[in-house]
Amino acid sequence: MSTIILKPGKDRRLRAGHSWVYVGEVADLTGDPKDGDEVEIRDHRGRSQGRGLLNTQSQIIVRRFTTQDEPLDENFFRRRLQAAFAYRQGDTCRLVFSEADQLPGLIADRFGDVVVIQALTLGIDQRKQMILRLLREFLQPRAILERSDAPSRRLEGLPETKGALYGEANGLTTINVHGVQFAVNLLDDQKTGFFLDQAENYRLVGERCAGKKVLDCFTYHGGFALFAAQAGAASVEAIEISAPAVARAQRNAELNNATGNVTFQCANAFDVLKQYDAAKRQFDVVILDPPTFTRTKQNVEDALRGYKEINLRALKMLPPGGLLATFTCSHHIGPDLFMDAVLDAAADARKTVRLVQRLTQAPDHPILPAIPETEYLKGLLLEVI
Length: 385
Ligand code: SAH
What we know:
binds S-adenosyl-L-homocysteine; 30% strand; alpha/beta; seven-stranded mixed sheet; 28% helix; 385 residues; 20 strands
């Protein structure tokens, strides 16, 4: 077994429960392992810190899969997948969430009888056939698609790729998310085809929209808007900049017989919010679920200004009793920074807000507190009082 030996003190992150070893933390690599191979991790005194998969092309040179002394063979992956499946229920959900399921680099989503996987690391990429075998063994899906068209693959020295790995499927299907129908294209839509991470929040926020006048900014395929409509909103206006996304949202509204109370507008939400603010428009519920405004630490200040601007305009449109559901999916904006930006907006809008509920990613995207990166979706449900 090849061994990676850490520099003194560089075992701290692993001991605290994280699973990454950075290249700068390594004192020595013994044996002659190839990229993707299993390695044992030892601290500078020689004590074992578990086993992981090696990729010398990545800044994260090893991702630990186990703290125990056990081989990372097919049986190991079978047990890990079994544990991940046991934690989930339903036939439309995230089955495997990478580090949060102790399977770094592997994402698997189930959409009825189609499974979509992402292989985000070299170690997982090399084991794709084995993973397919196991997924077929457990789930007997009609098809398994791959959506490894994630830019982060480049950090692992891997090209972007997508397509059918097993079975016949063009990716077009209709899924049912808590009673709302969505037409999806699993080979072309964002990420693995659908934002399953918001499914719980669709329901939570939607339930509060009965009889209300709702504005859903950055709606994509109509997620929040359709749940609001389904819950009996008086009217829902939804804004989305991408024309194909608006066309799909419209189709989804038709699928759910919701065209009577939902309208979609293809526009820049920043502009619309500015116009509505100037026109002193009022809503009962405003939803802000923008794309990430920053992918790097350097842009955090700009991103915070962006969050402040949209939240300020939204809060100005809300009378007492009005609700703001506001989100950030940026890794670099933690819950405290996000709260500060929104509170800053509330102060400028001269609104007092009550925290109704903190919102996060759906439970099938579990959070490991020892691995902060597993928590990425932060939301606030606020009431103007
Ligand atoms: N709320 C959605 C997900 C939003 S993802 C859901 O739950 O499914 C962010 C969306 O914002 C994308 O669809 C993107 O096309 C859109 N978008 C990005 N910039 C925008 C802008 N300036 N104005 C309106 N929409 C924008």
